[in-house]
Amino acid sequence: MKQPIFSGTGVALVTPFRRQQETVDFTKLEALIENIITSGADYIVALGTTSEAATMTEAERSAVQEFIVETAGGRVPIVLGVGGNNTTSVCDALARTDFDGIAGVLSVTPYYNKPNQRGLLAHYRAVASASPVPVLMYNVPGRTGVNMTAETTLALAAECPNIVGVKEASGNMAQVMELLRNRPQGFRVISGDDALTLPMLAMGADGVISVIANALPRDMSQMVRFGMKGDLKKALPLHYRMLPLMNAIFEEGNPTGIKALLEAQGAITGALRLPLVKATKQLSNKLTALYNEYCAEA
User: Fold this and answer.
1) Could you check whether the bond before residue 255 is cis, i.e. omega within 30 degrees of 0?
2) How far apart are CA 87 and CA 70, in angstroms?
3) From 43, 124, 167, 259, active-site residue
4) Which in 97, 154, 255, 284 has the greatest CB count within 10 A?
């Protein structure tokens, strides 16, 4: 079977919750998915860190996964977040998962226990062996406390045919350039930072898994397409127009900011599950003002 090519704009999908009961609001989720697909995004990442999957029950995660797959209806690939800091548990989760309609998995580096590079190599070898679909690794040291070096990433890319790319969110552009310079043919290097996406595309990266695209799917998708074609004349205005919002949504953490922006748009409530809490009034007002400015510049 031909492996899917994960390039362009992937959307790290949020999970809308109802304001009072904090149960999943599937009506709002359906509307988000429809807007993302019809606005031109290339694929959706379900149950990643932006989705608050860590605070859902297993039954909720299964229901959300099934709903996303059904709503997308094969129009775009679905990548499923499956990660953790217990390698055996991650592999067990992969064995239990229904992969019907799932094109790949996104698996974050183990967090908290801070494995060294040999530990990361062993972890991803096990994940690649356990996964029946292609694996995208996710390097995000700001969340996990450990950086997966370019040397480790490239070793896994060369050794494991089932590992097809990395979502790189280290913010280390020298590391990104080393990955791009030395990667094997077909291995995807994907931005994990909205604000660094265009610079990474200019160096040869393959797209983004984006948070801001929950709220601005059309403009983010267009910017990425222009950037991948090397058309900076068209990409730069979109980049700089979105940049204040890209930066502001992370001021109080993710997905706090993107949910506040989506609430300002009237798309969802800003409800989150503990230990995350809603954006402050100060940030909500700031995002509303920035979004109004963004719309005025259209």
Assistant:
1) yes
2) 29
3) 167
4) 255
Q: How many whole angstroms from its chain centre is CA 73? A: 20
Of 191, 137, 178, nearest in space to 160 by CA = 137
Range of the domain at 34: 8-227
Q: Compute the residue count for the chain.
A: 298
pLDDT of residue 21: 75
CA atoms within 13 Å, Cβ hemisphere of 215: 27
State the chain's mean pLDDT as an integer.
96
CB atoms closer than 10 angstroms to residue 186: 12
Beta bridge partners of residue 139, listed in sequence order: 168
Q: 167 catalytic, yes or no?
A: yes
Which of 138, 259, 291, 294 is catalytic? The answer is 138
CATH number at residue 152: 3.20.20.70
CA gap 114, 117 in Å, rounded: 9
pLDDT tens, 17-64? Answer: 998 778 999 999 999 999 999 999 999 999 999 999 999 999 999 999
Question: What integer pLDDT is reported at residue 245 of this predicted model?
Answer: 98
The single-letter DSSP state of residue 56 is S
Work out how many domains the chain is built from and give that number.
1
Q: How far apart are CA 5 and CA 245, in angstroms?
A: 29
